[in-house]
Amino acid sequence: xxxxxxxxxxxxxxxxxxxxxxxxxxxxxxxxxxxxxxxxxxxxxxxxxxxxxxxxxxxxxxxxxxxxxxxxxxxxxxxxxxxxxxxxxxxxxxxxxxxxxxxxxxxxxxxxxxxxxxxxxxxxxxxxxxxxxxxxxxxxxxxxxxxxxxxxxxxxxxxxxxxxxxxxxxxxxxxxxxxxxxxxxxxxxxxxxxxxxxxxxxxxxxxxxxxxxxxxxxxxxxxxxxxxxxxxxxxxxxxxxxxxxxxxxxxxxxxxxxxxxxxxxxxxxxxxxxxxxxxxxxxxxxxxxxxxxxxxxxxxx
Length: 301
Hints:
The protein is α+β, with helices and mostly antiparallel strands and 301 residues long. It is built from six helices and 17 strands. It has helices at 17-25, 29-37, 109-119, 146-157, 233-240, 287-298; strands spanning 2-7, 41-43, 46-47, 59-64, 80-83, 87-92, 127-128, 137-143, 162-170, 177-181, 184-185, 195-196, 203-204, 207-215, 219-226, 263-271, 278-282. Strands 5, 6, 7, 8, 9, 10, 14, 15, 16 and 17 form a ten-stranded mixed beta sheet that branches. The N and C termini lie far apart (59 Å).
């Protein structure tokens, strides 16, 4: 059970501890209810109710109840970028989904993380902070408790995180740096594709910054920064411009050259949910994408 401790300040003295904790850690109402009914709040090492107040200099400790996931452990390699008691960051390999679905009930990152927990003598509920498509590689963040997950999602909602991707797209772009500001929506039930809409047909504001890194004969390497986080956003926006990702069958990308969409989650920047320290996590480019870039470079006219 993870614990958060702090010393009450002059400003926090005399205020109900549940309010101080809520303001300091932004715990969800659900988590605050668990803390209340499981007696997980302590003042100077003694259990107290949330309405209790304290004095400046008093020690407050709040514990987060343990939760576990129940996926079947599978021996799938995990490339750890960073880990502490609050979250785990991995470089996800392509060809594997994040969590079980109807079509992929096993052999997922959730199964792999369960095995990793066994091997490292850990136990926590797997909480994905960001999601990557099955064939997208790169930075994948997993919270180890509900507070960390909620805090990082709030950062994403407030646009204080930064997510950068590498992508290889068909053709070339008229500009070296530009912003795509086009709404994205889901037109039909049962259809996997997202589309650019006119904004009135179930579309949501979507912004993608694109910067050209290298041009090849019939393709372009770009760095993409997500300013919003819609499903398939990069794939939809670039396809709409007539520059679908190499290997992206769903959105009309050229096939036969690369057996997945050429997309890699390069980095994720955020503030540590507990220490507030700015952090950036970078994922090494996978071998298949490096080989594609080398092939395109060698064939460049």
